[in-house]
Automatic annotation (TrEMBL):
Keyword ATP-binding: yes
PANTHER family per UniProt: BIFUNCTIONAL COENZYME A SYNTHASE-RELATED, DEPHOSPHO-COA KINASE-RELATED
Keyword Nucleotide-binding: yes
InterPro entries, A to Z: Depp_CoAkinase (IPR001977), P-loop_NTPase (IPR027417), Rossmann-like_a/b/a_fold (IPR014729)
Name under which the protein is recorded: COASY synthase
Organism per entry: Glareola pratincola
A Pfam cross-reference name: CoaE
Gene Ontology molecular functions: ATP binding; dephospho-CoA kinase activity
Superkingdom as given in the UniProt entry: Eukaryota
Keywords assigned: ATP-binding, Nucleotide-binding
Gene3D superfamilies in alphabetical order: HUPs, P-loop containing nucleotide triphosphate hydrolases
GO terms of biological process kind: coenzyme A biosynthetic process
């Protein structure tokens, strides 16, 4: 549930940066950096531990560790609470503390790596696919790209068009799922259709096998139209 989890660096990279930082701060200490396969890590099983460093926001986690230690027959750890450094440059949408979440926010809109040169891909038209869950910003980004001159293809609108009477998937969907999915005016009732496929993987696949190839063809036609317009 981390913000922009896709931009979190691999564990090996993060661990190497952490070790470099710690050894720079105090090289005389021995550091044992371990990956946590569970929320507690070695803190609830290591009898040699005496203290756990927490912050105000992680104190409850420290208390949970002590509860687990007692269950495991181990003595409680001393919880040493530190203050987190504030980020003087944080924006309104970022955390007040110095945070990797804020750093990931700042990566938005930057190139993480140069565009891949693939000789199998045509140089034009240059096609960008915007994906993500509800509320992830697809519409906002599409609007910005449109203002910069991009030709927009809205897959949601194509999804409605492909079902509409006369649409390329209309007759097959009605034939496969029955006339009971139709409204009085002959349009497909998407709620009734959805109820037929919800929780039924086989029926859902039957629907997507009909609809998705037709949508892909509509996308290809619109890409050709965009190319023709320059």
């Amino acid at each position: 549930d981390k913000v922009l989890a896709e931009l979190i660096e691999p564990y090996e990279v993060r661990a190497a940066k952490l070790r470099e930082f710690l050894e720079d701060v105090k090289p005389s200490l021995r550091y044992d950096i371990v990956p946590l396969a569970d929320p507690y890590g070695p803190s609830v099983t290591d009898p040699d531990l005496r203290c756990l460093v927490v912050s105000e926001e992680t104190r409850r986690g420290g208390e949970a560790v002590n509860k687990k230690r007692l269950e495991n027959g181990l003595p409680e750890l001393a919880l040493y609470e530190i203050l987190l450094m504030k980020d003087p440059d944080h924006s309104q949408n970022e955390e007040e503390k110095i945070s990797s979440s804020s750093l990931r926010q700042r990566l938005l809109g930057t190139l993480l790596r140069p565009p891949r040169q693939d000789p199998a891909l045509p140089s034009r038209p240059y096609v960008i696919g915007l994906t993500g869950g509800t509320g992830s910003g697809k519409t906002s980004i599409a609007k910005l790209l449109g203002q910069l001159g991009a030709f927009l293809i809205d897959a949601d609108k194509l999804g409605h068009a492909v079902y509409s009477p006369g649409g390329p998937a209309y007759e097959r969907v009605v034939a496969d799922f029955g006339a009971e999915i139709l409204n009085e005016d002959g349009t497909i009732n998407r709620k009734v259709l959805g109820a037929k496929v919800f929780g039924n993987q086989e029926r859902l696949k039957s629907l997507t096998d009909i609809v998705w190839p037709e949508m892909a063809q509509m996308v290809r036609e619109q890409i050709r139209e965009a190319d023709a317009q320059g």
